[in-house]
UniProtKB/TrEMBL annotation:
The keyword Transferase applies. The keyword ATP-binding does not apply. It comes from the Bacteria. This is Galactosyltransferase-related protein. Signal peptide: none annotated. Pathway: Cell wall biogenesis; cell wall polysaccharide biosynthesis. It comes from Klenkia sesuvii. Residues 5-106 form the Glycosyltransferase 2-like domain.
């Protein structure tokens, strides 16, 4: 099965370079790597001849959903049978692609464990597996095991894989979303509604490079509200409840019936 990796990028050039190095060290190399540059002219210089770059204009709100769709379309045009999506911050373990490819089948959505790395001036790629400490809120099967997920809401878009047929069945990401938050939860809900189960794939590990974050992400408040409203209209409930409640505690948002609005 021809395997393609899709990465969407705006900035984070050092992170992208380390991901490219991790992909070069795969025991089962990718057949194609599509990097979608969202309003970022500097990506091509980082990538060189190691991947294909698709340029996508971007305004104030990054088109994350549309960018993933564009990357998938470019990969499918070259015959990809398996799509592996990696967040630009993620360095893949050497066997990530091999593990995803080994269990790939139509009609499922697969996700591997992700470890958040501590701050560092650089990372020793060979030593990353010794730092494995997957997120405590998500299952992390042993290498070689695949566990069915009980809750699609635990899906995240840092690292996941699905066949071309499954991608086509789900029709990609909803492009009503732009900016930060919500589009990956929507994708998982779409899979759930379509009867596509989520599975956790042991051994398909990725390592998330450190970058500063704010908790809650107050700089993305308007995106959270806009995307949350899209999600609520489509599915009948609001995602990102933890962030919304943290915003409420700070007096930044309030409830308006079943909705959330800025104060």
């Amino acid at each position: 099965m021809r395997t393609a990796v899709v990465t969407v990028v705006h900035g984070r050039h050092d992170h992208l370079a380390r991901q490219l190095a991790g992909l070069a060290a795969q025991t089962r190399p990718a057949d194609d790597h599509v990097v979608v540059a969202m309003g970022d002219d500097g990506v091509a210089a980082v990538v060189g001849d190691r991947a294909r770059v698709v340029d996508l204009p971007a305004g104030d709100r990054l088109p994350l959903a549309a960018a993933r769709n564009a990357g998938a379309a470019a990969a499918l045009d070259r015959g990809a049978g398996l799509l592996v999506f990696l967040d630009v911050d993620c360095i893949p373990a050497p066997v990530l692609l091999a593990r995803y490819a080994a269990v790939a089948q139509d009609g499922v959505l697969d996700s591997g464990p992700v470890t958040y790395l501590p701050p560092a001036p650089d990372y020793d790629l060979a030593a990353l597996p010794t730092l494995a400490d997957p997120h405590p809120a998500r299952p992390a099967p042993p290498d070689g095991e695949v566990w069915p997920a009980a809750d699609h809401r635990l899906f995240w878009s840092l690292s996941f894989a699905l066949t071309a047929a499954t991608w086509t069945r789900l029709d990609g990401f909803c492009t009503e979303y732009a900016g930060y938050g919500g589009e990956d939860t929507d994708f998982a809900e779409t899979a759930h509604a379509a009867g596509v189960p989520l599975r956790w794939v042991g051994g398909a590990a990725a390592f998330h490079q450190h970058h500063p974050v704010s908790r809650p992400p107050v700089e993305h408040l308007s995106d959270v509200l806009a995307n949350g409203a899209v999600f609520a209209r489509r599915w009948g409930w609001w995602p990102m409840q933890g962030w919304l409640e943290a915003f409420q505690e700070r007096g930044l948002v309030r409830r308006a019936g079943e909705d959330w609005v800025a104060v």
